[in-house]
Design brief:
Distance between the termini: 16 Å
Number of strands: 4
Strand order of the largest sheet: 2-1-3-4
Order of helices and strands: EHEHHEHEH
CATH class: Alpha Beta
CATH architecture: 3-Layer(aba) Sandwich
Low-confidence stretches: none
Number of domains: 1
Structural class: alpha/beta
Number of helices: 5
Radius of gyration: 14 Å
Mean pLDDT: 93
Strand content: 15-25%
Helix content: 40-55%
Length: 142
Amino acid sequence: MSETPYRLLFLCTGNSCRSQMAEGWARALGGERLAAMSAGIEAHGKNPRAIAVMREAGVDISGQESTKLTDAMLDGVDRVVTVCGHADENCPLLPPGVTKEHWPLDDPARATGTEEEIMAVFRATRDEVRERVTELLGRLPA
């Protein structure tokens, strides 16, 4: 008998950076005990800088899709993690038994400055997301 993986959904405004990184880290670190996905209140497409900084860390998120949240995505989900204030405020009513938590992450796509400065913000977000995913995995059922 195989165990059903814990289903985790990361929700953001546009599903282009923070939620994509979180999905990538959860897939990389969670193994078979976890089924991770991400979505947005809207779908803004994948951010090439997010893909690049994750690739630097050894995680390929280029095959993930930028998707808009649907009711069907919420069916069978165990936990929803909102990664921005807009998603937290606009998160739909969740089915009974689904837990929700909020990670107030700044949007790296709003960074300004030189390319080097912008990429530094993306790397800092990547590293913070990894820390949060690692901590979350430590709290999930074995």
